């Protein structure tokens, strides 16, 4: 099984998103280094490792995401 950051992202998302306190797991950069970004509530952040399969993990505090409708985008 590969150890690319994309593979790690999928596996970490599968592990963390079961509890409902993690909204998303993505790939980003921090100081020019690729990192896994985990968007989690305060309670979810406690479950997030600082490294996963050799990749650094950065937690972004988030209370979740919600879809925007036309009114949210300035529409009528």
Description:
With 76 residues, the chain is α+β, with helices and mostly antiparallel strands. It has helices spanning 5-16, 42-45; strands at 22-30, 33-40, 51-52, 55-61. The protein contains two helices and four strands. A hairpin with a 2-residue loop joins strand 1 and strand 2. The protein is globular. The mean pLDDT is 87.
Please tag this protein with its features.
76 residues, 2 helices
Write a short abstract of this structure.
This protein has 76 residues and is an alpha+beta fold. The protein has helices at residues 5-16, 42-45, and strands at 22-30, 33-40, 51-52, 55-61.
Tell me the layout of helices and strands.
Elements: H1 5-16, E1 22-30, E2 33-40, H2 42-45, E3 51-52, E4 55-61
Parallel strand pairs: 2-4
Antiparallel strand pairs: 1-2, 3-4
């Amino acid at each position: 099984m590969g150890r690319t950051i994309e593979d790690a992202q999928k596996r970490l998302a599968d592990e963390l998103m079961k509890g409902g306190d993690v909204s998303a797991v993505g790939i980003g950069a921090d100081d020019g280094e690729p990192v896994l970004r985990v968007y989690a509530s305060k309670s979810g952040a406690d479950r997030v490792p600082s490294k996963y399969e050799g990749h650094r993990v950065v937690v972004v505090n988030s209370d979740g995401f919600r879809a925007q409708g036309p009114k949210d985008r300035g529409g009528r």
